[in-house]
Amino acid sequence: MSTYTRILYQIVFSTRHREKTLTENKREALYKHISGIIKNKNCHLYRIGGIEDHIHILTDLHPTLSLSNFVKDIKMSSTEYIKREKLFNHFGGWQEGYGAFTYSI
Predict the structure, then answer these.
(1) Can you give the pLDDT at residue 3?
(2) Contacts of 86 (CB under 8 A, 6+ apart)
(3) Which of 42, 58, 71, 100 could form a disulfide with 46 if both were Cys (CB 3.0 to 4.6 A apart)?
(4) What is the percent of the chain where pLDDT is above 90?
């Protein structure tokens, strides 16, 4: 018997201290990077967006992954990417936690 799940997660996390560092003109590059992370983990990204101080990700989660490790990997990889590419001048990292909400379809 194989595993089948159909659960969507809305994941939300913000910049450290909710600093407004995610400038609009460079957010698409960040979203593209996060999209690649999600695809490499065999998950499907439905939507990604945000504003200056937080992002929203609507995705499914492969059954072999834990939500906490999934979010941790996205936050760590995107932080490295932002710093390496000097994407946002005053980016100080992501907040410690996150919000996650499930949707069934």
Answers:
(1) 83
(2) none
(3) 58
(4) 90
CA dist., res. 20 & res. 91, Å (int)? 9
CB 100 within 8 A of CB 10: yes
Q: Measured between alpha carbons, how far is 99 from 10 in angstroms, rounded to an integer?
A: 8
**Is pTM, for the whole model, over 0.90?**
yes
Report pLDDT digits (tens) over 50-100: 999 999 999 999 999 999 999 999 999 999 999 999 999 999 999 999 999
Domains of the chain: 7-104 (3.30.70.1290)
**Residue 11 contacts residue 66 (beta carbons within 8 Å):** no
CA distance 75 to 90: 16
- Tally the C-alpha atoms within 13 A of residue 31's C-alpha that lie toward its C-beta: 20
